[in-house]
Amino acid sequence: MKKSRWLLIGGSTLLVAASVFFLGLRAFETSRAFRGSAIGTPYPPAADFELQRTNGSLYRLSEHRGKVVLIYAGFTNCPDFCPGTLAKFKQIADSLGDDAKHVDFVFVTVDPDRDTPAVITAYLNNFSPDFIGLTGSMDQLLAFWTDYGAGRIPEQPDADGNYEVSHSTRVWVIDKGGLLRITFPFEMTASDMTHDLRLLLAE
Q1: Which among 202, 151, 165 is positioned nearest to 34, based on CA atoms?
Q2: Which of 70, 71, 135, 203 holds its CA 20 to 30 A away from the CA of 39?
Q3: Residue 180 and residue 68: Cα distance in Å, rounded?
Q4: Does 10 have pLDDT greater than 80?
Q5: How many domains in the chain?
């Protein structure tokens, strides 16, 4: 009887230990999973592009290997999605601390007629002077908008000449090897974005 009781206790202990182990393993695997929208494997190379920085120098994506690159296409007159996304970029950069120097936070205009280099610079400075603002010729921008699914559609101006520009609100995330890994929907929190970036920076 005693032997059976000890066997029962021992078996129960093993079951509890196994349950704890597998729960811990599942929690670890969950912590290693991206919270953004993962791109299917094999990961595609991100389309290369060359656009003009607001200081007049050129930014070529392929020259920034070794960094994680976040790309958002928007415009400075945007009333909601663009400032909301850039505010999250600021939160992410603050959370990463020194690691933020290994991330390029890139804003590409979808409204080049109004978004001059000076206007983009002043706009981004409201969030961080370290953010990279890009523009270019219409041909360069059209190629970028197409490759990155910007979905840019200017709306009809009102009586005062003001107009909105419909566009994608997703952030494209490129890893240190130049591969397109994930996208962030607008609804995603800065905390979850930071989680994913830490995973990519650790690779």
Answers
A1: 202
A2: 135
A3: 10
A4: no
A5: 2
Backbone φ and ψ of 196, nearest 5°: -65, -40
Closest CA to 197 of 115, 101, 119: 101
Enclosing domain of residue 140: 37-202
Same domain assignment for residues 45 and 137 = yes
- Residue 113: left (phi > 0), alpha (psi -120 to 50), or beta? alpha
- Report DSSP state, residue 63: G
Three-class DSSP category at 166 = strand
CA distances from 144 to 1, 19, 129, 174, 201 (A): 77, 50, 23, 15, 25
The continuous run of DSSP H or E covering 96 comes out as helix 81-96
| CA distances for 195 relative to 98, 110, 168, 191, angstroms | 15, 28, 23, 6
Strands of 37-38's sheet in order across: 37-38, 180-184, 171-174, 68-74, 103-109, 132-135, 50-53, 58-60
* DSSP tag of 116: -
What is the C-alpha separation between 194 and 35, in angstroms, rounded? Answer: 10
Q: Residue 65: is its pLDDT beyond 70?
A: yes
* Interval 163-201: pLDDT, tens: 999 999 999 999 999 999 999 999 999 999 999 999 999
**103 and 87 within one domain:** yes
E strand residue ranges, the chain: 37-38, 50-53, 58-60, 68-74, 103-109, 132-135, 153-154, 165-166, 171-174, 180-184
Q: Which two tokens stand for residue 200?
A: 């990519």
User: Is pLDDT of 7 > 60?
Assistant: no
